[in-house]
Amino acid sequence: MTATQPSATAAPAGPTGPSGAARPGPIEAVPVRHPGRWIAAVLVLVLGIGAFASILQNPNLDLPTVGEYLFKPLTINGVLITLWLTAASMVMGVIGGIVVAVMRLSANPVLSVAAMLFIWVFRGTPLLLQLIFWGFIGAFIPKIVIGVPFTSIEFWSFTTSDLIPATVAALLALGLNEMAYAAEIVRAGIQSVDPGQTEAAHSLGMSPAKTLRRVVLPQAMRVIIPPMGNETITMLKSTSLVAIVAGDDLMSNIREAYTQNYKIIPLLIVAAIWYLALTSILSIPQMWLERRYGRGFNGARPTIGSRVSTFTQSIALPARTARASKKESAS
Amino acid sequence: MTATIPHAAPLAATSERPMVEAVEVHKRFGNLEVLKGITMSVDRGQVVCLLGPSGSGKSTFLRCINHLEQIDAGMIRVDGETVGYRERNGKLYELREREVATQRRKVGMVFQRFNLFPHMTALENVIEAPVQVARRSKADAREQAQRLLAQVGLAEKADTYPAQLSGGQQQRVAIARALAMEPEVMLFDEPTSALDPELVGDVLDVMRGLAESGMTMIVVTHEIGFAREVGDVAVFMDGGVVVEAGDPVQVLGDPTEERTRSFLSKVL
Asked: Which parts of the sequence are annotated with region: Disordered (chain A) (predicted)?
């Protein structure tokens, strides 16, 4: 036991060079415990089961009625009208929105101010108000006349209520409101595209219209689609507001049914099931569109398969590692 | 103050009109006058290199030739046509954007930041303008694009998206894209400035090949070696004017102007 001994024994333990060093084994450590998480999880589980059980045992739930109404022609017709209203007003909103966005970005001040005013009015007032307004448009403008202004010359005249029946009024309200929102989304999308892209297209001899259609919009779509997906889902639910003026959509039909039989809760559950099913299905075309317009942008290619697998991984992985580490610590 | 480029042969002998002709070109951005009277003439098949410190107006001048910038005074002609205007009965008429687009088909441009269309593959980038603008058949354009991509050494990258290509490869696709419209003159705006040093050579090789094939080229560049080797004329610009122009070996090797001399001493 001399003074030199410690350094002598330390030498073999030190690094022996890249060729001699063995790969160290995996780290064996006691994982951090999360007792708070466990307590919270148990609490949520107990409360959830309790709530679920009490709902199922509630006599007012009336599951047979839910089953009866779920696929009734009244319900199915309502679903079809809701889908039609959503699709029609979204098509109107998107196409009109592109036009308004291009106007908004125009160098002509009349066009850009007109677009700004349009957006200001239709985005700044409640959708419900707009629906009622279009529903009662006949009271505001009883007759629509095509002629020369400030003279009595008339080429054509219509009674407004004939020209704009309730369903058209509903469509107008939803479509115009959507146009205002879509215009802002499209404008943001167009402005997100590098101006160098426009210059390159111009230098190749492409006209402004062709540049927009072939170069700018396809790239803007990447930015436009996610918020547009949101808009579509919001629209699907907003169609329920037309119950005020037009009707025949899912919510109107359900409301009509429960005002007659007073089975309010079961019928609301029927509507909820349908709205949830439809909004869930809507995320599939969105994913498809995101993949379609994500081409050429690295890493931005979500597939349905990859989304599901990353989702299941995010659930499964922590559990698996926890189990693995527990086994490790037990041995 | 302004210098005209000396022609290789006496003017009388070259009965052919110049490919690009600029007369007293002025351009201002707000209060800043970027071009203060640029006059130059580029013959068919000539390679002109524009050099000078940043802010000297060389890129702006290049963009004016393509009407990406509108000039305030003077005149630019490409193949005898006034850029951006139509002359009729001694009066100037501004061209519609469509007509400007048609005019630009004669002029190819390569940008510092490549500006490839990221949502299209290399091949799609190259066939876009021939199919959409020149209305050529897709099969025809595809065949030409394959040939052009082979010419820039990227035949096997036809189906690759720009994001998966290196900067040098992207720039070579951009050159192929510009060539696909069969332009009469090619403009290069600092084509190698955004590239890693080891990728510069490939792009310069493609440009050298293009010059040898007889393409008229105007190149804004900081590559002194390229200008000396490939250029027929070197133009040194500073403060919006042409300081000195002439044979690259003389301008870059033994400049007569003090400003050229001090610039070259900094970049060499």
From this structure: 1-26
